[in-house]
Amino acid sequence: MQKHSILGLIAGLAAAAIWGGMYVVSKVVLDVIPPFTLLSMRLLLGFFALGAVILLRGGFTVNSRQFWSYFGVGVIGYGVSLSFQFVGTKLSTAANGSLVTSATPALVLPFAFFLLKEPVTRRRMAAILLASLGVLAVIDPRSAQLSSSLFIGNLSLLGAAITWALYSVLVRKVSSNADLLQASAIMLLGGLPLTLPVSAWELTTQGMGAITPGIIGGILFLGIISTAIAMFLWNFAFKELPAAVASLTFFAQPLVGSLLGWFFLGEKITALFVLGGVLIGIGILISSRE
């Protein structure tokens, strides 16, 4: 395997692992700050963190066409997809969220075929199938609920999975000859036209709770680690790897979340979880060796 491929896999797995571990922090901070206000803070902090590094390297050098291309991709990923995710999480259940969003790697395949002309090979299909079965073992779909009262929430979660798959493929499409750091920073700005108006409404109608040093630390973690660093790593994975391969690293997210639940909350690790982890690993290995 080439060095760039290995780095891409590591980057994708690291991004998914960070997202898998941010649930506890998000839960604490969301008790104080409304969701779209927090999302706007994350995007702004992420932009300023990446922007500081870009300024140290000499500043932004993108032209107008590149700026709007990256910005448009960000609208899909950080505006539309994350908004769907927030709405779906609020109106559905955590189990449903894990189940529906686990479809993201499979949804990458058709987008990669039509937008990037990546072939849908038997190896890639087998890798997706194995890893998907592994995720089902990890998250246990028996806990999902399909009642009519959750329909809008479940539909929003599906919208989040579809648009995140589209975003990820578009990252590969626009980043082939791009300065990825600059592209990633501008993409974060793309979410703000959708999140800031909702954030203003939240602050007007709900306000915020007490901002303690712990909450500030949580905001900084979510903005710098979970947004600036993790989003850049995810984009790097899709720049370096075929989209179908990079997408499989997404499956590290439920694995890490479950392991942290075991470590911090005393949740049980079952034989199904171990089997799921093995299947996910085999799926990633099969895909990466194509």
Structure summarized in a few sentences:
By secondary structure, the chain is mostly helical. It has one domain (3-288). It is 79% helix and 0% strand.
Please provide the count of β strands: 0
- Quaternary structure of the protein: single chain
- What is the beta-strand fraction? under 5%
Number of helices: 14
**What spatial form do the alpha-carbon principal axes imply?**
globular
How large is the radius of gyration? 18 Å
| Element pattern in H and E | HHHHHHHHHHHHHH
Distance between the termini: 9 Å
Largest sheet: none
* Average residue-wise pLDDT: 86
Structure description:
By secondary structure, the protein is an all-alpha fold. The protein has one domain. The chain has 14 helices and no strands.
List keywords for this structure.
single chain, mainly alpha, 14 helices, 79% helix, globular
